[in-house]
Amino acid sequence: MNSTGVYRKIIHIDMDAFYASIEQRDNPDYRNKPIAVGGSPEGRGGVVATASYEARKYGIRSAMSSKKAFQLCPDVIFVRPRFEVYKQVSQQIRKIFCRYTDLIEPLSLDEAFLDVTSDKQNIGSAIEIAKQIKQAINDELHLTASAGISINKFVAKIASDINKPDGMTFIGPSRIEKFMESLPVEKFFGVGKVTAEKMKRMGLHTGADLKKLTEPDLFRHFGKSGKFYYRIVRGIDERAVQPHRESKSVGAEDTFQHDLKNPEDMYDELRKISVIVHERLRKHNLKGRTITLKIKYHNFKIITRSISLADQIDDLETIYTTAKKLLDGTDLVEKRIRLLGISISNFRMELSSQTSDQLTLGL
Ligand code: DCP
Ligand code: MG
Asked: Are both 212 and 266 inside the same structural domain?
């Protein structure tokens, strides 16, 4: 690590069971109950966006079909998502972050990196700032968040997941290497299911195993990402918190000559649109985790539905089947559709490292 003892102070905040907690907050009937946001009653179709912690005890998870969720827990309550409310809450959280720093990099509605190396209120301690942010989210929004605190983005993000819900984990410079050595390979940023399987076939299960390989070895097996693994396993991640990172998306949409009423026709059109989106992703060499479906009805009302998958998406079948699931999750009865669109966003974070100003320690 940095021998001069100067480190950045990075906080990663991630809301707990975000959509579900908001629904439980706003509707007392849902409190302490297994609820799944998204999906449809009795598991007739659609996918679960997220589940309350009570529902997770039964094994219900994000991106699971509501059919499966219903099988796991027949008492689960399916709740229709209210995306506008989630967006509003997301803005409220961001305002809280802004009291401490302007260096905020949102990763999605419910999570963000904050660089508090120098904070607006001169609090100085990243742990104290994280505590205050959690407290403000609790007091003002009646929700809980988990925080990870470290000297870089990678470790802060993993740390926020360790004591969920309502957790706070600090991993200081002296603990980073040990922590990275014990980390299972699937937890490494950018390691998808396929890469994790490849690693395991090679006998690489943890950070300690990865650490035995030289940089050229890692590059040979895993390409550019291999170089990133080499650094990250040693606790080196110089990527800056980027407050103005563009949120990019690639997509396609089509307005129909005649409104669509029949689901089969909608599926056909979705497939055509999927093919175009797939070609565009290929062309720009992009993979993203989030798929958004846009629907415009005959009365020009527009709705969007989105879901984030565990892995980066760039294959046609996943684009089509996920978009179809999202469509099936909407009410199609007696609906006439003028336009359908699919877009992919949440692209892979830039793996190349960036140097940034590093100030004095005191986490
Ligand atoms: N989401 C989604 N599809 C997914 C994953 C998540 O639509 N496959 C939505 C619903 C979540 C929100 O994004 O509430 C935030 O995602 P997280 O992965 O942070 O999950 P939660 O906040 O729900 O739970 P956790 O407490 O594990 O963070
Ligand atoms: Mg969350």
From this structure: no
Which residues are placed with Cβ below 5 angstroms of ligand 2, an ion?
Answer: 14-15, 18, 110
Q: Identify the nearest ligand to the CA of 60 by its number.
A: 1
Q: Is the pLDDT of residue 3 over 50?
A: no
Catalytic residues, by residue number, are 111
Cα-to-centroid distance, 17 and ligand 1 (Å): 6
Whether residue 281 is found in the same domain as residue 338 = yes
pLDDT higher than threshold 90 for residue 322: yes
Residue 121 maps to a domain: no
Statement: the pTM of the whole predicted model exceeds 0.90: no
**Is the CB of 51 inside a 6 Å radius of any atom of ligand 1?**
no
Tens-place pLDDT, residues 70-105: 999 999 999 998 988 998 999 999 999 999 999 999
Please tell me if the CB atom of residue 14 comes closer than 6 angstroms to any atom of ligand 1.
Answer: yes
The enclosing domain of 191 has a CATH number of 1.10.150.20
Residue nearest to atom 1 of ligand 1 (CA): 49
Instruction: With a cut of 90, say whether residue 358 has pLDDT above it.
Output: no
> Ligand 1 in contact with 19 (CB < 6 A)?
yes
Ligand 1 atom closest to residue 111's alpha carbon, by position in its atom list: 19
Of all atoms in ligand 1, which is nearest to the CA of residue 63?
Answer: 8
Distance 143 CA to ligand 2 centre (A): 11
Q: What is the pLDDT of residues 207-240, one digit of tens each?
A: 999 999 999 999 999 888 899 999 999 999 999 9
Residue 52 lies in a domain: no
Q: For position 42, what pLDDT does the model report? A: 64
Among protein residues, the one with the nearest Cα to ligand 1's atom 9 is 49
CATH number for the domain spanning 322: value is 3.30.1490.100
Q: How far apart are CA 41 and CA 109, in angstroms?
A: 26
278 shares its domain with 196: no
Mean pLDDT of 181-185: 94
Which ranges constitute the DSSP H helices of the chain?
18-26, 53-56, 66-72, 83-98, 126-141, 153-160, 173-182, 193-201, 207-211, 215-222, 224-232, 263-284, 316-328
Instruction: Return the SS3 of 340.
Output: strand
Residue ranges making up the domain that contains 316: 249-349
Q: Is the pLDDT of residue 34 over 90?
A: yes
The answer to the question of residue 312 being in a domain is yes
**Which residue lies with its CA nearest to atom 23 of ligand 1?**
17
Structural domain count of the chain:
2
DSSP secondary structure string for all residues of 254-302 = EEEEEEE-SHHHHHHHHHHHHHHHHHHHHHHT--EEEEEEEEEETT--E
